[in-house]
Design goal:
Length: about 160
């Protein structure tokens, strides 16, 4: 592609960055109990905000906050401790990924898990990414059963 054509195209907004901001928003929500609109408004002041997929961020944050209890019920069977005992960062990552897995079937479950693991490696505790990966692998078998079975058949 010529540099002229590249200059005409707007840069693609990053869903990965949106997820990072989503974890930040959910962490803030867990600690302060603020509402989604206020938190999203505060995030707009951040330096990297212009690079994110703003619509995806808003859907994730509003959706997770509105459905947090239902999402916790979904992940509870796969936790080794009560959700309230999880680190706020890992809990935020699990809630975000669970929401995405449940409500965004257009995003492959492996992408959801990979993104969550990367977030946990960056922002979570030492082995938090292993914990997040294990929980989400088990959750995917429930929430995305057909997709998981199809992926397993392809790998056999």
């Amino acid at each position: 592609m010529s540099s002229e054509r590249r200059a005409d195209k707007a840069p693609k907004k990053s869903r990965r960055k949106a997820r990072e901001f989503g974890v930040q928003a959910l962490y803030q929500w867990k600690l302060t109990g603020g509402d989604a609109n206020t938190i999203l408004s505060q995030l707009r002041e951040e330096k990297e905000y212009s690079k994110i997929d703003e619509e995806h961020l808003a859907v994730l944050v509003r959706g997770v906050i509105a459905q947090a209890q239902e999402l916790d019920v979904l992940i509870a069977p796969y936790l080794d401790r009560p959700a309230g005992d999880l680190s706020p960062v890992e809990h935020a990552i699990l809630l975000l990924a669970t929401y995405e897995m449940k409500h965004h079937p257009e995003i492959p479950y492996r992408v959801v898990i990979n993104e969550a693991v990367e977030l946990a490696k960056t922002y979570g505790g030492t082995d938090g990414h292993k914990f997040v990966n294990g929980v989400l692998d088990k959750l995917a078998a429930q929430v995305r059963a057909l997709e998981v079975k199809s992926a397993v058949r392809k790998n056999v």
